[in-house]
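Task: complex structure prediction.
Instruction: return structure tokens for all chains below.
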Amino acid sequence: SYVLTQPPSVSVAPGKTARITCGGNNIGSKSVHWYQQKPGQAPVLVIYYDSDRPSGIPERFSGSNSGNTATLTISRVEAGDEADYYCQVWDSSSDHNYVFGTGTKVTVL
Amino acid sequence: EVQLVQSGAEVKKPGESLKISCKGSGYSFTSYWIGWVRQMPGKGLEWMGIIYPGDSDTRYSPSFQGQVTISADKSISTAYLQWSSLKASDTAMYYCARGLALGENWFDPWGQGTLVTVSS
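Output:
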């Protein structure tokens, strides 16, 4: 089955840039979506189709995808960005179909 | 406003059955897929399965095939996730989420989640 690997944690100072990676075999050939989950809340879509932002999501959130790594970038990090972040793809080659990454906890110092 | 509202928290004993619900509003319920996602305590997101309420086409993750049943009643815009015999390991938060299409697409929005606790 297809595996998506994320770093368990990323720490960043306010105002700086956080980069969260999502590794998978030839992930660049797939569409990657990203979700933010704050403590005690349901996940919220922040990036779809690698780099598109849903309405209401700040421009500070951006995404890229190439080769074996997709990246979610959060610019000018704010305290309110502290959350878990998950990447997600659809794997047509297996019955598992929808695959989520292992998740990354972003801590704002 | 597109919204998914899930049924409330449940406390059950091992071996009991359970059916939780997810009601959609603010959009054409029969034109989108509804997926179910499990989140065990302190863990990540796991895709369980997905249903198209328009014709009840249903797909399951192999990890959950035979363990749960996904269904929908389009007349009341509601999808369901059910167990016939719960185990302690089913203790988790369960989310429903709307999917645009089967395939390379995302889930948005998500329901608020239903916490299921299974304990003797």
